[in-house]
Design a protein that fits this description.
Elements lengths: L2 H23 L2 H30 L3 H11 L13 H4 L4 H37 L6 H25 L2 H25 L2 H21 L3 H20 L31 H14 L2 H18 L4 H27 L2 H4 L11 H30 L2
Helix pairs in contact: 1-5, 1-9, 5-6, 6-8, 10-14, 11-12, 11-14, 12-14
């Protein structure tokens, strides 16, 4: 068996699997609606493009650069390992190495295309906002190398750390590399930065190639596969797909203790909801992200748009909390009690209000302060 044929076979299996799931959810009528919606959105963006450019001109240059930099952290390296490979290929380590080699090459190629597209589009957008701020060739080269460097760096971070430590290291590196990126753009240190990143990228690829990362790559491959399946099934209202969460030591309520002395059913469910949300870092970060990004964006938008943003936040946060609540009561044990004493329909409002009203109050306070400043500064 040749390695390249094995890689092609795995790739073909993956495409068939995802296509089968897609066909199970989306028929031709839904496809037509999706195409029509995309055409409508594209036409709306085309029509609003001059207004969008005017709006972006009012934003700080650093904020636009931050959004582009954030996209550089969205790359991934996928190795098509399967759990049974460790048994079937126990005497064919060359096949496992070969799969890793083709996975790295294919992922790097896809990441390069993605990075070039983002760099080109961001260049065109930045040229429309602030002409002659970025040199085209240097910017595309720099961003592409930065994208690939961050992707392989993330792979090694996942190999060495897990849980809260990994998130902490990610955050520190995100700030550090972001600061260096800003210095590079501000001082136009393109060639020095590109050369440094190229050397770093090659070294990190060599380290990743040499380490034994079968378990990590196999788990990562399965995670991406389930993510695509989840994205496909989210398109169907009839299929509930609870998101898989990584099992780590919780930061809050590591040892279960009572929060409320009141033991009525909705109080017990509220306590369970708090613990479910606070023990999962994904929920904590999403909750803080929704509030933080809304407040940050409010500071740069015209007054009439901040009111619209507040209205969108009003409904979006409610919907997000309802989704988390549905995930909780969707557990097989709690599902048996739906409509009974423990879980009743009106409990959802009683449970989610504890996180909903403080967030709405905080964002509303920022809106009031913005409004006051707007009229006082006129």
């Amino acid at each position: 068996m040749k390695v390249f044929h094995l890689y092609k076979e795995r790739l073909k299996q993956e495409r068939k699997y995802q296509w089968k799931n897609t066909k199970a959810v989306i028929d031709w009528t839904i496809l037509v609606y999706i195409v029509l919606t995309l055409l409508f959105v594209a036409a709306m963006i085309y029509d609003m493009f001059p207004s969008l450019i005017t709006l972006l001109k009012g934003l700080p240059y650093g904020l636009s650069l931050f959004v582009i930099y954030y996209l550089a952290w969205t790359g991934t390296i996928r190795i098509f390992y399967q759990q049974a490979d460790s048994y079937f290929f126990v005497h064919r380590k060359d096949l496992l190495k070969g799969l890793k080699k083709w996975g790295i090459l294919a992922s790097t190629g896809l990441n390069s295309i993605k990075a070039v597209l983002i760099a080109t589009l961001s260049y065109l957008l930045m040229e429309a906002v602030s002409p002659s701020m970025l040199p085209l060739v240097e910017w595309v080269l720099y961003y592409s190398v930065l994208f690939i460097f961050i992707t392989i760096l993330g792979k090694l971070l996942d190999f060495h750390w897990s849980g809260w430590k990994r998130k902490g290291v990610y955050f520190i590196l995100f700030i550090l590399i972001g600061f260096l990126t800003y210095i590079t753009v501000d001082k136009s240190l393109w060639y020095l930065a590109i050369a440094t990143l190229l050397i770093g990228t090659v070294l990190l690829h060599v380290i990743y190639w040499r380490v034994e990362s079968f378990s990590l790559d196999m788990a990562h491959n399965e995670k991406i596969r389930q993510k695509y399946v989840g994205m496909i099934f989210y398109a169907s209202e009839y299929v509930h797909v609870p998101r898989a969460s990584e099992r780590t030591k919780p930061l809050f309520f590591g040892q279960s203790q009572r929060i409320f002395e009141d033991r009525r059913p909705h109080s017990a469910l509220t306590e369970l909801f708090f613990k479910y949300l606070l023990r999962n870092s994904r929920h904590i970060f999403s909750y803080l992200q929704i509030i933080g990004i809304t407040i940050a964006v409010m500071g740069y938008l015209p007054l009439w748009m901040t009111i619209g943003l507040f209205m969108a936040f009003f409904f979006f946060l409610k919907e997000w909390l309802n989704i988390v609540y549905d995930e909780l009561v969707g557990h097989p044990f709690l599902n048996m009690h739906k409509g009974k004493k423990l879980i009743q329909g009106h409990y959802q409002e009683l449970v989610t209000r504890w996180l909903y009203y403080p967030a709405v109050g905080l964002v509303g306070l920022v809106l009031i302060i913005n409004t006051l400043f707007h009229f006082l500064m006129r």
